[in-house]
UniProtKB/TrEMBL annotation:
Main location: membrane
Keyword Lipid metabolism: no
Keywords: Cell membrane, Membrane, Transmembrane, Transmembrane helix, Transport
Gene source species: Megasphaera paucivorans
Membrane topology, as annotated: Multi-pass membrane protein
Segments traversing the membrane: 17-39, 51-76, 82-104, 146-168, 188-207
Gene Ontology cellular component terms for the protein in this record: plasma membrane
SUPFAM superfamilies referenced in this protein's UniProt entry, alphabetically: MetI-like
PANTHER family with a match to the protein in the record: ABC TRANSPORTER PERMEASE, D-METHIONINE TRANSPORT SYSTEM PERMEASE PROTEIN METI-RELATED
Name of protein: D-methionine transport system permease protein
Cellular location(s): Cell membrane
Length: 217
Protein backbone atom coordinates (compact mmCIF):
# COMPACT_ATOMS: atom_id res chain seq x y z
CA UNK A 1 0.00 0.00 0.00
CA UNK A 2 1.46 3.34 -1.07
CA UNK A 3 2.28 6.26 1.20
CA UNK A 4 -0.44 8.25 -0.57
CA UNK A 5 -3.12 5.71 0.39
CA UNK A 6 -1.86 5.52 3.99
CA UNK A 7 -2.01 9.32 4.20
CA UNK A 8 -5.51 9.20 2.72
CA UNK A 9 -6.62 6.63 5.30
CA UNK A 10 -5.25 8.75 8.15
CA UNK A 11 -7.17 11.73 6.80
CA UNK A 12 -10.28 9.55 6.60
CA UNK A 13 -9.88 8.55 10.24
CA UNK A 14 -9.61 12.21 11.24
CA UNK A 15 -12.69 13.15 9.21
CA UNK A 16 -14.70 10.25 10.63
CA UNK A 17 -13.63 11.16 14.18
CA UNK A 18 -14.66 14.78 13.57
CA UNK A 19 -18.11 13.83 12.26
CA UNK A 20 -18.77 11.35 15.06
CA UNK A 21 -17.51 13.68 17.81
CA UNK A 22 -19.60 16.68 16.68
CA UNK A 23 -22.79 14.66 16.17
CA UNK A 24 -22.31 12.76 19.45
CA UNK A 25 -21.66 15.94 21.43
CA UNK A 26 -24.67 17.82 20.06
CA UNK A 27 -26.79 14.66 20.10
CA UNK A 28 -26.03 14.11 23.78
CA UNK A 29 -26.51 17.79 24.59
CA UNK A 30 -30.07 17.66 23.24
CA UNK A 31 -30.90 13.95 23.30
CA UNK A 32 -30.28 13.33 27.01
CA UNK A 33 -32.55 16.18 28.23
CA UNK A 34 -35.10 15.12 25.61
CA UNK A 35 -35.08 11.54 26.89
CA UNK A 36 -35.50 12.76 30.47
CA UNK A 37 -38.39 14.99 29.37
CA UNK A 38 -40.11 12.07 27.63
CA UNK A 39 -40.10 10.19 30.92
CA UNK A 40 -40.86 12.97 33.39
CA UNK A 41 -43.79 14.35 31.35
CA UNK A 42 -45.38 10.92 31.00
CA UNK A 43 -48.45 9.85 32.98
CA UNK A 44 -48.10 9.89 36.79
CA UNK A 45 -44.52 11.17 36.67
CA UNK A 46 -43.02 14.28 38.29
CA UNK A 47 -43.72 16.69 35.40
CA UNK A 48 -46.76 15.02 33.86
CA UNK A 49 -47.88 16.83 30.70
CA UNK A 50 -49.74 14.77 28.13
CA UNK A 51 -49.52 17.32 25.31
CA UNK A 52 -45.78 17.94 25.55
CA UNK A 53 -45.14 14.22 25.91
CA UNK A 54 -47.20 13.32 22.86
CA UNK A 55 -45.73 16.13 20.76
CA UNK A 56 -42.12 15.23 21.56
CA UNK A 57 -42.82 11.51 21.18
CA UNK A 58 -44.37 12.04 17.75
CA UNK A 59 -41.47 14.17 16.50
CA UNK A 60 -38.94 11.61 17.75
CA UNK A 61 -40.83 8.74 16.11
CA UNK A 62 -41.12 10.56 12.78
CA UNK A 63 -37.38 11.28 12.57
CA UNK A 64 -36.44 7.76 13.67
CA UNK A 65 -38.70 6.21 11.02
CA UNK A 66 -36.80 7.82 8.12
CA UNK A 67 -33.84 5.74 6.82
CA UNK A 68 -30.57 7.62 7.18
CA UNK A 69 -29.66 7.60 3.49
CA UNK A 70 -33.07 9.11 2.62
CA UNK A 71 -32.82 11.66 5.43
CA UNK A 72 -29.43 12.86 4.17
CA UNK A 73 -30.89 13.59 0.76
CA UNK A 74 -34.18 14.99 2.05
CA UNK A 75 -32.57 17.64 4.26
CA UNK A 76 -29.95 18.83 1.77
CA UNK A 77 -31.50 22.36 1.75
CA UNK A 78 -31.29 22.48 5.56
CA UNK A 79 -27.74 21.12 5.49
CA UNK A 80 -26.74 23.77 2.97
CA UNK A 81 -28.37 26.44 5.12
CA UNK A 82 -26.54 25.38 8.28
CA UNK A 83 -23.18 24.26 6.91
CA UNK A 84 -23.01 26.39 3.77
CA UNK A 85 -22.55 23.27 1.64
CA UNK A 86 -24.18 19.88 1.13
CA UNK A 87 -20.98 17.84 0.77
CA UNK A 88 -17.98 17.22 3.00
CA UNK A 89 -17.53 16.32 6.66
CA UNK A 90 -19.07 19.49 8.08
CA UNK A 91 -22.20 19.00 6.00
CA UNK A 92 -22.44 15.34 7.02
CA UNK A 93 -22.56 16.42 10.68
CA UNK A 94 -26.03 17.89 10.15
CA UNK A 95 -27.94 14.68 9.24
CA UNK A 96 -25.79 12.67 11.66
CA UNK A 97 -26.78 14.99 14.50
CA UNK A 98 -30.44 14.95 13.51
CA UNK A 99 -30.35 11.14 13.60
CA UNK A 100 -28.39 11.06 16.88
CA UNK A 101 -30.82 13.20 18.89
CA UNK A 102 -33.97 11.01 18.69
CA UNK A 103 -31.95 7.78 18.75
CA UNK A 104 -30.23 8.70 22.02
CA UNK A 105 -33.38 10.21 23.51
CA UNK A 106 -35.23 6.89 23.25
CA UNK A 107 -32.30 5.00 24.77
CA UNK A 108 -32.09 7.49 27.64
CA UNK A 109 -35.86 7.31 28.11
CA UNK A 110 -35.59 3.55 28.62
CA UNK A 111 -32.71 3.99 31.07
CA UNK A 112 -34.59 6.58 33.14
CA UNK A 113 -37.73 4.43 33.20
CA UNK A 114 -35.70 1.57 34.66
CA UNK A 115 -34.89 3.65 37.75
CA UNK A 116 -36.92 2.41 40.71
CA UNK A 117 -39.83 4.85 41.06
CA UNK A 118 -39.73 4.24 44.80
CA UNK A 119 -36.58 6.38 44.89
CA UNK A 120 -38.48 9.19 43.20
CA UNK A 121 -41.35 8.91 45.68
CA UNK A 122 -38.89 8.91 48.58
CA UNK A 123 -37.27 12.10 47.26
CA UNK A 124 -40.69 13.70 46.81
CA UNK A 125 -41.64 12.84 50.38
CA UNK A 126 -38.54 14.72 51.55
CA UNK A 127 -39.63 17.81 49.62
CA UNK A 128 -37.27 17.54 46.67
CA UNK A 129 -38.23 19.58 43.60
CA UNK A 130 -38.56 17.95 40.16
CA UNK A 131 -35.21 19.42 39.11
CA UNK A 132 -33.55 18.05 42.25
CA UNK A 133 -35.07 14.64 41.63
CA UNK A 134 -33.73 14.62 38.07
CA UNK A 135 -30.27 15.80 39.10
CA UNK A 136 -29.81 13.81 42.30
CA UNK A 137 -31.90 10.68 41.73
CA UNK A 138 -32.71 9.89 38.10
CA UNK A 139 -29.42 10.87 36.45
CA UNK A 140 -27.05 9.30 39.03
CA UNK A 141 -29.05 6.07 39.09
CA UNK A 142 -29.25 5.82 35.29
CA UNK A 143 -25.69 7.07 34.60
CA UNK A 144 -24.06 3.67 33.91
CA UNK A 145 -26.71 2.74 31.35
CA UNK A 146 -26.65 6.23 29.85
CA UNK A 147 -22.91 5.77 29.27
CA UNK A 148 -23.74 2.48 27.55
CA UNK A 149 -26.35 4.33 25.50
CA UNK A 150 -23.79 6.89 24.35
CA UNK A 151 -21.43 4.04 23.43
CA UNK A 152 -24.17 2.47 21.31
CA UNK A 153 -24.81 5.87 19.72
CA UNK A 154 -21.14 6.36 18.82
CA UNK A 155 -20.93 2.90 17.24
CA UNK A 156 -24.06 3.58 15.20
CA UNK A 157 -22.76 6.99 14.12
CA UNK A 158 -19.51 5.44 12.92
CA UNK A 159 -21.56 3.19 10.65
CA UNK A 160 -23.75 6.09 9.56
CA UNK A 161 -20.71 8.28 8.84
CA UNK A 162 -19.39 5.55 6.56
CA UNK A 163 -22.74 5.59 4.79
CA UNK A 164 -22.47 9.37 4.43
CA UNK A 165 -19.47 8.74 2.18
CA UNK A 166 -21.92 7.56 -0.46
CA UNK A 167 -22.95 11.18 -1.11
CA UNK A 168 -19.58 12.83 -0.57
CA UNK A 169 -19.66 13.05 3.21
CA UNK A 170 -15.96 12.34 3.52
CA UNK A 171 -14.32 10.05 6.04
CA UNK A 172 -13.52 6.37 5.72
CA UNK A 173 -16.78 5.61 3.94
CA UNK A 174 -15.91 8.03 1.16
CA UNK A 175 -12.47 6.43 0.77
CA UNK A 176 -13.97 2.93 0.70
CA UNK A 177 -16.38 3.94 -2.07
CA UNK A 178 -14.10 6.13 -4.21
CA UNK A 179 -10.98 3.98 -3.98
CA UNK A 180 -12.06 0.55 -2.76
CA UNK A 181 -15.23 0.17 -4.83
CA UNK A 182 -15.05 2.51 -7.81
CA UNK A 183 -11.34 1.87 -8.49
CA UNK A 184 -11.45 -1.82 -7.55
CA UNK A 185 -8.83 -1.45 -4.82
CA UNK A 186 -9.54 -4.45 -2.62
CA UNK A 187 -6.62 -3.53 -0.33
CA UNK A 188 -8.14 -0.11 0.39
CA UNK A 189 -11.56 -1.62 1.04
CA UNK A 190 -10.05 -4.19 3.40
CA UNK A 191 -8.01 -1.53 5.20
CA UNK A 192 -11.09 0.65 5.84
CA UNK A 193 -13.04 -2.35 7.15
CA UNK A 194 -10.23 -3.33 9.52
CA UNK A 195 -9.88 0.25 10.78
CA UNK A 196 -13.62 0.51 11.42
CA UNK A 197 -13.65 -2.84 13.25
CA UNK A 198 -10.73 -1.79 15.46
CA UNK A 199 -12.24 1.63 16.21
CA UNK A 200 -15.66 0.16 17.09
CA UNK A 201 -14.10 -2.40 19.42
CA UNK A 202 -11.98 0.24 21.16
CA UNK A 203 -15.04 2.48 21.62
CA UNK A 204 -17.10 -0.43 22.94
CA UNK A 205 -14.38 -1.47 25.38
CA UNK A 206 -13.96 2.11 26.62
CA UNK A 207 -17.70 2.57 27.06
CA UNK A 208 -18.13 -0.73 28.92
CA UNK A 209 -15.16 0.04 31.18
CA UNK A 210 -16.45 3.54 32.03
CA UNK A 211 -19.95 2.20 32.67
CA UNK A 212 -18.63 -0.43 35.10
CA UNK A 213 -16.58 2.20 36.94
CA UNK A 214 -19.67 4.38 37.39
CA UNK A 215 -21.89 1.52 38.46
CA UNK A 216 -22.08 1.60 42.27
CA UNK A 217 -24.37 -1.42 42.56
Amino acid sequence: MSQEIIKLLLQGIQETAFMVFISTFIGALIGIPLGITLVTTSKHHILENKYINQLLGTVVNIIRSVPFIILMVAIIPLTRLIAGTSIGTTAACVPLTIVAIPFLSRLVETSIRDVDFGLVEAAQSMGASPFQIIRKVLLPEALPTIINNITVLIVNLIGASAMAGAIGGGGLGDIAIRYGYQRFRADVMLATIIILIVVVNVIQFGGDFTSRKKNKK
